[in-house]
Amino acid sequence: MSSRIEAIGFIQEDNAENITRYRESLDSLLLTDENLRNRRILDIGSADGGFARYVRSLGLNCEIVDLDTVWAPPPDAQAVRADAYHLPFRNNVFDLVVSSGCIPILCIGSKFTGEAQARQNTKMSLSEAFRVTKPGGQVRMNSVPTIGSVNFAGHYEWEYFGLIAVADAVKDYVRLLNSRGNKAFVKTDTLIIYKKG
Length: 197
Ligand SMILES: C[S@@+](CC[C@H](N)C(=O)[O-])C[C@H]1O[C@@H](n2cnc3c(N)ncnc32)[C@H](O)[C@@H]1O
Hints:
Blueprint: E1 3-4, H1 16-28, E2 41-44, H2 50-57, E3 63-66, E4 78-81, E5 94-99, H3 103-107, H4 114-132, E6 133-141, H5 157-179, E7 183-187, E8 190-194
Parallel strand pairs: 2-3, 2-5, 3-4, 5-6
Antiparallel strand pairs: 1-4, 6-8, 7-8
Helix pairs in contact: 1-2, 4-5
The chain binds S-adenosylmethionine (SAM).
């Protein structure tokens, strides 16, 4: 279930430093300020809505979705508490759907859920982002694991195999989209999807 989030609690103040951080997340999505103009934008896994505040600093709008409730969005932000696997939006409504730093967290699951679940999670989160994107629109997600980029070092075994499963599921989904006339690819660690117009 999703619900409109009431803007209660503290509202994070932006300073030059954290606005710069969200500018960097735009860079890592391989986007520029210009790509944001005249677009209906959704940020999935927005946390406290920092990216949306960056977009707002340009005089534009950005809707946000996160499952967690510890953060409080700006009062006039369009914020929805919802699961990325079941986005509470109709099909084909956003020009640009972004997600920063979320795919591993969203998809890997836990040591109890296993690789099949990681694959399923990946498919669900990518297909939901695609579903709500308009024909001719784009999905951009950074921090997307690729087979060659996942290192065993620094991970528990279940995390390593979970990330490999996520990377493989991303590859499969990209192939599926391309076979249906969309254009999808991973550049470095950024997934870019151009939905067929
Ligand atoms: C690494 S943080 C993302 C940070 C933010 N995008 C940024 O760039 O600062 C991951 C976010 O994903 C959210 N998240 C995790 N699972 C989710 C789910 N199933 N649906 C929606 N959001 C989820 C978490 O609550 C968290 O805010």
